[in-house]
Amino acid sequence: MKPILEAKNIWKIFGKGCKNCFSIDEEKNGNICKYCGSVIGCRNISFEVYKGEALGIVGESGSGKTTLLKILNFDIEPTLGELRVNIEKEDVFGSDLINFIFQKDINLFNLSPYEKRLVRNFLMGIVYQNPFLGLRMNVTAGGNIGERLIMADIKNIEKIRNRAKELFIKTEIPVERIDEYPAIFSGGMQQRVQIAKALSIKPIFLFLDEPTTGLDLSVQARVLDLIKNLQKEMQLTMIVVSHDLGIIKHLTTRSIVMKDGKIVEAGLTDQILEDPQHEFTQVLVNSSL
Amino acid sequence: MLKVENLTKRFKIHQLGGKIIQGFVDVNFEVKEGASLGISGPSGAGKSSILKCIYRTYIPTEGNIWYESELYGNVNLSTLKEHLITKIRELEIGYISQFLKVIPRVSALDIVANPLIVEGVPEKEAKEKAIELLKRLGISQNLFDAYPATFSGGEQQRINIAKAIIKAPRLLLLDEPTASLDSKATEIVLTLFKELREKGCTMIGIFHDKEILKKFSDEIYYLNIDM
Q1: CB contact under 8 A, B82 and A232
Q2: Which residues of chain A does B56 touch, with a Cβ-Cβ cutoff of 8 Å?
Q3: Which residues face A244 on adjacent strands?
Q4: Under an 8 A CB cutoff, do B57 and A274 touch?
Q5: Contacts by A92-96 with C-beta closer than 8 Å and gap 24+?
Q6: CA B91 and chain centroid, separation
Q7: 3-state helix, strand, coil in chain B (%, to 5)
Q8: Contacts of the segment A13-21: beta carbons below 8 A, 24+ positions apart
Q9: Tens digits of per-residue pLDDT, A5-64?
Q10: Quick check: B176 and B206 in contact, CB under 8 A?
Q11: pLDDT tens across B67-91, in order?
């Protein structure tokens, strides 16, 4: 069984960078290179995800977990690294447009910006912690979903509206609010619109960056349930970034723990919570409420 | 079907200056298909830790856990890749602890029927099976559509058992599964376990009560505190 996604030796250096950045001593300097002052966001990150799995990325603020997710979503470019996918043609909607990903051994980071946009449109959906990143607030909720469908070459207005309604029902948003602006929605509802948008073209990967942080507990629980059910139903491969171990436990079966841009531990999520190996993970687990 | 060799577990606590806490040392046993092994020993001897190592919630420090998997053949659970462990847990190995992993906002009936639905059994049939099992376990029909978070300890434990045995796993790990059940409910659970073994399910169980342990086990492994 080949992994559906393989990330290899990903580095991200913020700043001008120098050759010493690749060998900094994190014990003394955290994630800052003392020679050039650059911040090392991701340090030689490698991991694999298998089809239908939910992988957690855990760590404190500043550990590089969101940077890593943004690299996977092509929001930012890595300094170095490789990203490969192994996907069946019949699983991809719009596969004719992105035939190039079925060629052997394609490092997705080397694709052209246009090709990256296609990959993101057809294979990936993302839900950001901040709904202002994921939604256009001056476009109606239905319009936000429509935009993605138009980008995927679906131009029939009737079709677009029906698909948007379908997604609203799926994500438990009242359909009659389809023509309202997400700016006036509650936080929980904004996250639902983000989820609907992320799933509008049935993606292979769903990336979630602190999807429920900042929501009150009962709304948080309902959004998490929704995500979990949709993952099962649509057989999504999911990567969840969170500092909240409860969310990670609820949503994922396997996790990696990051500190100062580096993976310090990887394993089954219940093992990481009950038998953490690394010093940092032990502190993290012992500090959770 | 399961062979444990020289299994040792130590915990290293970094916050206490790398202090080592001994889980258990050099455990060896073997369980045949359809058999039941009881683990006995004083509190703190590491009984639960053995089960957690087999389930890989704990990473064994030393030793091998050879398991005859239907999916992957003979594998060593102590070093098997995590994504394969996930699959084996999903399809082959069940684990019942003394605490219910309360799944919030899901009804008792749905919790129990879910493992079958995931496997592709039609919802109606899955629910009928779940109802039958819950009835046998003496759960009041009133509770079927209620949320187990509010149930009594004994009721939660029976939901836990029902969820784990509804689709007969190949290997079942039991950590005090009857701890909060009365004697009548315990009898029913032991009978259910026996029926499962007759279908080929292999079991390893921890029971505090000597009588229950004897009734459950074909063989007993004694674990001593070894310092």
Answers
A1: no
A2: 268, 271
A3: none
A4: yes
A5: A92/A122, A92/A123, A92/A204, A93/A122, A93/A152, A93/A201, A93/A202, A94/A121, A94/A122, A94/A152, A94/A153, A94/A201, A95/A122
A6: 14
A7: 40, 25, 35
A8: A13/A38, A13/A39, A13/A40, A13/A41, A13/A79, A14/A38, A14/A39, A14/A40, A14/A41, A15/A39, A17/A79
A9: 999 999 999 999 898 899 887 767 788 888 899 999 999 999 999 999 999 999 988 899
A10: yes
A11: 999 999 999 999 999 999 999 999 9
Partner B contacted by A286 (CB < 8 A) = yes
Looking at CA atoms only, how far is residue B50 from chain A in angstroms? Answer: 13
Question: Is A254 part of the contact surface with chain B (CB cutoff 8 Å)?
Answer: yes
Mean pLDDT of A222-241: 92
Using an 8 Å CB-CB cutoff, list chain B residues near A282. 13-15
Residue B120 token pair: 């592709």
- A-B Cβ pairs (cutoff 8 Å, strict): 48
Q: How far is it, in rounded angstroms, from Cα A55 to Cα A191?
A: 20
| Distance in angstroms (rounded) separating the CA atoms of residues A12 and A34 | 16
ipTM of the complex: 0.91
- Say whether residue A181 is in contact with chain B using an 8 A CB cutoff: no
Place B102 in a pLDDT band, splitting at 50, 70 and 90. low
CB B166 within 8 A of CB B129: yes
Q: Per-residue pLDDT tens for B29-69?
A: 999 999 999 999 998 899 999 999 999 999 999 999 999 99
Burial letters for A263-274: b for 16+ Cβ neighbours within 10 Å, e otherwise?
bbbbbbbbbbbe
What is the value of pTM for the model shown? 0.92
Dihedral sign, Cα of residue A248, residue B50, residue B173, residue B29: positive
Q: Is A265 on the interface with B (CB under 8 A)?
A: no
Residue B18 Cα to chain centre, angstroms = 31
A86 shares contact with chain B (CB less than 8 Å): no
In sequence order, what E strands does B97-180 have?
171-175
- The alpha carbon of residue B146 and the mean position of all alpha carbons in its chain are separated, in whole angstroms, by 24
Instruction: Pinpoint the alpha helices (H) of B92-148.
Output: 108-118, 123-136
Partners of A278 on chain B (C-beta within 8 Å) are 14
How close B87 gets to chain A, by Cα (Å)? 10
- The token duo for B75 is 């594998």
Q: How many CB atoms lie within 10 A of CB A219?
A: 17
Share of chain A above pLDDT 90, in %: 72
- Give contacts of A 193-252 with B, CB under 8 A: 221-222, 225, 232
- A253, A271, A286: residue with CB nearest B59: A271
* A282·B13 Cβ contact <8 A: yes
Nearest to A275 among B15, B59, B104 (CB): B59
